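Anyone else keep sequences and structure tokens together like this?

Example one:
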Amino acid sequence: MSPLSSLPVAMAATLRREVLVASRRGSEWANPLLFFVMVCSLFPLGLGPDPRQLANLAPGILWVVALLAAMMATEGLFRSDFEDGTLEHMLLSPLPLYGHVLAKTLAHWLLSGVPLSILSPLLAVLLQLPPTGMPALMVSLMLGSAVLSFIGAIAAALTVGLRRGGLLMSLIVLPLYIPVLIFGSSAVQSAVEGVAVLPQLAMLGVFLLLAVAFAPLAIAGGLRISCDQ
């Protein structure tokens, strides 16, 4: 069997392995969700109970906190593999590294971004977001969190060999997160105001397609650089 023909099998095996490992390390994917819930719950206490004020700020609050939660979840994406030698094995494998990192990033999104998107309507109710903004919130977070996972994985690959790479990772990803934040929060705000949200969602979809196509190449390059140091 050629490496290319066995690539889907290897990707499926990597995806299954990541889900099983994450199920045994519940804190790694549960902590970002708890952070998302706790921080969003604090805003009504700090801003006051005025429903109109909370509703105006809700799209930005939800997206900013979701962005920070995604960054928290991505920091250790490749660290355990780096420490136990799995990453070196992947680099020496005859199969393209593109498939491995794509499967790992998709698993990360399934365990962090998807639950965050599903949980968001409950916190949106707490922040007095009108019901008209709920579908746009969930769809924009589904698309946007996937883009954030790919961008964060690039920074995680570049800093995996550093003991304290959290600050450097933040400096790398935050400028790249800003377009996703702008279009994501704008989609929710437009839905609340009754304006068409398809342009913003389409841009998030474009970002996701570009991330799926090119981010694994950058991630693979970053891992090789980190392991060669």
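And example two:
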Amino acid sequence: MRRLRAIAAGLFAALVAFAPGHATAGSRIKDIASLQAARDNQLIGYGLVVGLQGTGDSLRNSPFTGQSLQAMLENLGVATRAQAVRSKNIAAVMVTATLPPFASGGSRIDVEVASLGDATSLRGGQLVMTSLSAADGEIYAVAQGSLVVSGFNAQGQGATLNQGTTTAGRVPEGAIVERELPKDLESDGQLVLQLHNPDFTTAVRVADRINAFARQRYGTPLARAKNSTVVTVRPPHGSHLTRLMANIEDLTVDTETPAKVVVNERTGTIVIGANVQISKVAVSYGTLTVQVQENPQVSQPAPFSDGATVVTPQTDIAAQTEGGRVAIMQGPDLRTLVAGLNRIGVKPDGIIAILQAIKSAGALHAKLVVQ
């Protein structure tokens, strides 16, 4: 057990050595910011998947599937209003996609498909022509193609095996862009960069780095940090915007992030960012384990007697306390904090409880995010 703890502590220390706080190389501007005009747009549509092997919607429980099937057949010249359709090879689905920036007409994008009714599987299905519209109600793409479903299920009389999700899939390059978005790099005559993680220090550093490049290339500064998120760049007269943006994206900047600790109580995951500090604090950790075991005793009467069988309950309760050590922790950086937590020898769930208690005591100088 001690050897396993030593190995875990060594691995944790190795991870700390490569933490962001110990890195010296800067990040490219293209990795920490994006052009405001170059934004994604979400598309959505309602469609039908056909060709299922009896795993589609039951039209009695999903009447909208039957209505959609009748409407589609009537558009194809097949009259079905007077007939009862009872096909199990069709399913109603929602189709979603993301339209990338500067997508031109005729280009293809991937689409995601998810069942709306009570279909049990979309494996082997074919998505029929589905229009995809944006928030403005305009149609920007049309999707159609064979579904790729990663999940599967197998069922017998005595057992059932399920893996993944069989009621959702995707159509790689299944949508064709029919309408282009406006392709204007500039906004009010200037390029607008948006930081992925808003921070005033990083925004100022990005503007200073761009201005240093601009003074060397154009002889005048071009950038200004508007706030913690936006950095504006005014292109010089006659400059090629695409080439200017390509040069700006390759510039490197030392980013700054606020101190933050993220814990996930469900999975026991703990992520401690750089610049996390704690004031001097004493921590005591101990766990109480209570085990309750029932051992009923059965007492039977003698043969040919008028007695009755009696069950006498017997309960054994055992309590055990582990840990209980007190450690004094004070650290100016990530390495010291992790070393102090390892010194107590607690598991991830205990570390989460300790971090929450330290935050409540006002000794953890970082934002604690509990997921």
